[in-house]
Amino acid sequence: MPEVSFVESLRMTLREEMQKDPLVMLIGEDIGRYGGIFGVTKGLLEEFGPYRVRNTPISESAIIGSALGAAMTGIRTIAEIMYIDFTTCAMDQIVNQVAKIRYMSGGKMKIPLVIRTQCGGGRGNAAQHSQSLEALFFHIPGLKVVMPSTPYDARGLLKASIHDDNPVIFIEHKLLYATKGYVPEEEYIIPLGQAEIKKKGREVTIITFSYMVWKTLRAAQQLEKEGVDVEVVDLRTLYPLDLETILQSVRKTNRALIVHEGCRRNGIGAEIACRIQEEAFDYLDAPVERVAAMDVPIPYSEPLEKAVIPDEEDIIQGVKRVLSRN
Amino acid sequence: MKEDHQIWLELYRMMVKIRRFETLTGELFAAGKIPGFIHLSIGQEASSVGVCSTLRPEDYITTTHRGHGHVIAKGGDVKRMFAELMGRSTGYCKGKGGSMHIADFSLGILGANGVVAGGFPIIVGAGLSIKLRGTDQVAVCFFGDGASNRGPFHEALNMASIWKLPILFVCENNQFASTTSFHYSTSVKSVAQRSIAYGIPGRSVDGNDILEVREAALEAVERARKGEGPTLIENRTYRLRGHFEGDPQRYRTKEEVENFLEKDPIKRFQEFLKNEKILNEEMDRQIWQAIDSELTDAIRFAEKSPYPQPMEALRDLYAEDVDPLFQRSLA
């Protein structure tokens, strides 16, 4: 198969799962005739009909809650929330209902529910359409959180998420949709909870995910020219967290940098840094560093947005900070 | 005996069962045998029983923080209910849920809910599921008057209406949202009026008259099964106990409560059945006695049941039962 885009990869996976299982349902705003504002569900209404592709009113709370009700009663449901910013309109449903209902009932039911949503800045969409809120969901027991970085991973991870009997928050960065990559036609699954080393290296472990993987790989190329050899770990899944792959890498390089687009304070990096020092303190030659967004909302104007969201240069500087300490 | 009479006696028996369950629960709470907080549905029995008596086992319900009555009326096992209230491992949720989270999927009980209006979107999902699977099940969302002032009420009614989902939205207007009166907190005189805004039939009935409740529910259930869409029923009733057990109830007078004791749905139906010569003193005594005996056994079962092991706290979060911290299997 030729290279396909991130969007096409998601769409072919949804279609494949819907063809295989008549009890798979999609629900969300503008996912019907319009095909989703990023085109992920294009053609699916026509192929599967309105009972399986439920185009909804602008009612995030009811989208998530009804997706939960459907999942509890035997429908493998994939809900779409157009922007991760709007998941906050459904936070009662996600945090109080979706994440807890299995536990509260003593494990009586399965919740085969995927909440697909879209995150990130870089498009001048300002503060309410550009957030990276994965840390909110990472904090809540009962959820799984998936953030793919390539079309290949998106397909394997979406498949695993749909097959999963737990609620999964599947977060797609808006700048990834148009990216292309090799995606085989045959089926494959990437199990949740398995990080991947996207670049091998010796001197510093960079732990990252989603769109930041690409910025990190570009920074790594630049660093290589300067004679610095970094290893890039793409988490792919935030929860379950593949701590083992992180630790193995850190035990080898003895230095770690965490890179993410969400703001620094209480971000994913804080948790990972803490885990590294708990589990691999004796291996560290320098404090674990973080490169993350500034602790402000995402501003609109291009120079402001660029200043707030980390770029390749910030990552290079981060690596140099880690290397400068002994 | 006529068939109606059999049904009526069963309705009566079920209301008495809920009344006694709730009364005993209040006593167990006062005696310190039930932790947390407890919301009793005493005075609202006609609503649970009237509606659930029109349902099949495979039909779905969602209920509320004041949900013991709905669970019992849908066929819930009082042993497992008492055990859950006492936090025992034999309880409906193995002691992980408590009063506000009792669920029994085998009876279509999709769960009580600790968040006011929590059941609305879930019931819409059950409705979608019914449509997709092509069955003639119906789904019932019980809620209080206070819930009709929350967003999910409005989102769910709109969705259920545009998709003609097989749903009954059953409001138990017990005149109080927690401690705030319905008249103060709600922009309309009747919750049923709100159905107009969503293009669905709405009906307000005397929620303390079990036959009137049942008649309204039968009509709505039939409509739902035929694929004609949702209905909102408002059962006007009165909460005879506080919002929670221990509520000082400074927001209402004793006289007001006493006035409503006269309209007690069980007392009214009891008098009706006696007037109709369907129930006599001896039968009545036997009904109450049999229920008390069943409930006493259930309490004994609960009290003898073990508490869960502490490390049980880690189980039941994810389907594969993994340790949430280290991803090691708990099996």
Which architecture of the largest domain in chain A does the CATH hierarchy give at level 2? Answer: 3-Layer(aba) Sandwich
Helicity level of chain A, as a percent range?
25-40%
What is the overall shape of chain A?
globular
Total number of helices of chain A: 12
What is the element string of chain A, with H for helices and E for strands?
EHEHEHEHHEHEHEEEEHEEHEHEHH
- CA-CA gap between termini of chain B: 55 Å
In the CATH hierarchy, what is the architecture of chain B at level 2? 3-Layer(aba) Sandwich
The strand count of chain A comes to 14
Would you kindly provide a brief summary of this structure?
The complex is a heterodimer of chains A (326) and B (331). By secondary structure, chain A is of the alpha/beta class.
What does this structure look like?
The complex is a heterodimer of chains A (326) and B (331). Chain A has helices at 6-20, 44-48, 60-72, 91-98, 101-104, 134-138, 151-163, 212-225, 243-253, 268-280, 302-308, 312-324, and strands at 4-5, 24-29, 53-56, 76-81, 113-119, 144-146, 168-173, 180-181, 196-199, 204-208, 230-234, 237-239, 256-263, 289-293. Chain A is of the alpha/beta class and 326 residues long. Chain A has two domains: 4-181, Thiamin diphosphate (ThDP)-binding fold, Pyr/PP domains (Rossmann fold), CATH 3.40.50; 196-324, Rossmann fold (3-Layer(aba) Sandwich), CATH 3.40.50. In chain A, α10 (268-280) links the parallel β13 and β14. Chain A is globular, with a radius of gyration of 20 Å. The mean pLDDT of chain A is 97. The radius of gyration of chain B is 20 Å and the shape is globular. Chain B has a single domain (3-314), classed as Rossmann fold (3-Layer(aba) Sandwich), CATH 3.40.50.970. Chain B has 331 residues and is an alpha/beta fold. Chain B starts with a helix and ends in a 27-residue tail after the last helix. The longest helix of chain B is centred in the N-terminal third of the chain and has 28 residues, at 3-30. In chain B, the strands form two sheets. A five-stranded parallel β-sheet of chain B has the order 1-2-3-7-6, with helices on both faces. A two-stranded antiparallel sheet of chain B has the order 4-5. Chains A and B meet through α3, α4 and α5 of A and α5 and α6 of B.
